[in-house]
């Protein structure tokens, strides 16, 4: 099922259930995807859709951090619910071990031996884990393995 169709189906379900948080998140996702489609000038590929959803997830995680720092537990709880909803539409995330294996393969493939070649390894790893792993986790693993 196409992502847009799934979002429409879930939007209807959220409306019937009077789920305000779910409704707001799904509308936000649909809007972000529509805006990205207009900017691109063509229908989005699956990878482009995942990139948009990943951006939405990242924004909510950053908001969660800010709400937690500001002692706004009410907003933090709502944002946590939003994060769970966005994650439903993203592919299953890779485990840290799986990411570590991909990093090892990229280091071997690129022949990187020092931290100076960090960018080269990241360039090889990121297309493989796009939308499936957090960039901060990948960065931390690459740094650890190159040092």
Would you identify the CATH H-level superfamily of the largest domain? Uncharacterised protein YqeY/AIM41, N-terminal domain
Q: CATH first level of the largest domain: which class? A: Mainly Alpha
Second rung of CATH, namely the architecture of the largest domain: Orthogonal Bundle
Q: Quickly count the domains.
A: 2
The arrangement of helices and strands along the chain is HHHHHHH
- Number of alpha- plus pi-helical segments: 7
Strand content: under 5%
Q: Measured on Cα atoms, how large is the radius of gyration? A: 18 Å
Q: Any idea of the CATH topology of the largest domain?
A: Hypothetical Protein Yqey, Chain: A, domain1
Structural class: mainly alpha
Overall 3D form: globular
Percent range for helical residues? over 70%
What value does the average pLDDT take? Answer: 89
The main sheet comes to:
none
Question: Residue ranges: pLDDT <50 for 5 or more in a row?
Answer: none
């Amino acid at each position: 099922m196409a992502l847009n169709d799934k979002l429409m189906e879930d939007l209807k379900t959220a409306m019937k259930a009077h789920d305000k948080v779910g409704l707001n998140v799904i509308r936000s996702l649909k809007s972000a995807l529509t805006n990205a489609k207009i900017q691109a000038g063509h229908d989005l590929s699956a990878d482009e859709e995942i990139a948009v959803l990943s951006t939405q997830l990242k924004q909510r995680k950053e908001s969660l951090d800010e709400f937690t720092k500001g002692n706004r537990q009410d907003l933090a709880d709502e944002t946590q619910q939003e994060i769970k909803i966005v994650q439903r539409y993203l592919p299953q995330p890779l485990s840290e071990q799986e990411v570590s294996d991909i990093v090892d393969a990229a280091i071997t493939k690129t022949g990187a031996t020092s931290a100076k070649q960090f960018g080269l390894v990241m360039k090889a790893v990121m297309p493989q884990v796009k939308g499936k792993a957090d960039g901060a986790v990948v960065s931390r693993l690459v740094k650890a393995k190159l040092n």
